[in-house]
Amino acid sequence: MTFFMKQMKSPQGTVLKSKAIFNQKAPKVASFSSRGPNTIAVDILKPDVTAPGVEILAAYSPLNSPSEVWFDKRHVKYSVLSGTSMACPHVAGVAAYIKTFHSEWSPSMIQSAIMTTAWRMNATGTGVASTEFSYGAGHVDPIAALNPGLVYELDKADHIAFLCGLNYSSKTLQLIAGEAITCTGKSLPRNLNYPSMSAKLSESNSSFTVTFNRTVTNLGTPNSTYKSKIVINHGSKLKVKVSPSVLSMKSVKEKQSFIVTVSGSNLNTNLPSSANLIWSDGKHNVRSPIVVYTYSG
């Protein structure tokens, strides 16, 4: 552009009207994005959500060249970048945005609001790339996250019980918690009060039954009734039961617990079977992915 303006006596340009194009496959996870399953805590679904991360105009360090090669002497304040390092600040910005409206919300409440209100992603393609191991709960929706209705909240005791379930030593737990910790009974890691539900099974060709214990906190309106709905994803043969199937919230910040029981058989090796649990009061739709899998890779 600069070269053109210098060469022309009367340089002129035309700004065309932008045109919106609807793509049914969007949003789509980039091929270079990291996938699950979680290899450390196998019963915690990862990733949590997706966010914009391809060709993002972002601030750039003037100490490095935009091409990152030694002979490039250019220095810029902004550059177009792609990667998880671009998606992460989008989610951080969404969290900060929510915090300005709800300063009293804890980090886990904000995380839950982001996950349970995310757009459900379209399964495009085959294999792991078109499953929750690719996109988690879905694509972030900042506006919807301001009013999630129900949230899955975590406190220090929840995290300690989770780490005990992962067989962390007392010495390691003390370093993390800042105090002496004694594990009294071991809670299954899958029972961490997380907005998603996931379980890794040891065998693919046998029948199974797994349960998830969860507690939700009402951040919607008092005297509200949430009814559960299960949506089985294409190709999955899961049977899912929620007990109780209806939650009656009398006040704001009221907590109620429920159990999700998932059963089935003959899982596909390395390909998860999944469903969605949706709690709805007619105004809010609090959605949590449910994933059961066996993995040999």
Automatic annotation (TrEMBL):
Subtilisin-like protease fibronectin type-III domain segment(s): 191-292
UniProt keyword annotations, A-Z: Hydrolase, Protease, Serine protease, Signal
Domain Peptidase S8/S53 per the UniProt entry, residue ranges: 24-138
Gene Ontology molecular function: serine-type endopeptidase activity
Gene Ontology biological-process annotations: proteolysis
Family, similarity comment: Belongs to the peptidase S8 family.
Entry-linked PANTHER family: PROPROTEIN CONVERTASE SUBTILISIN/KEXIN
Protein's recorded name: Predicted protein
UniProt source species: Arabidopsis lyrata subsp. lyrata
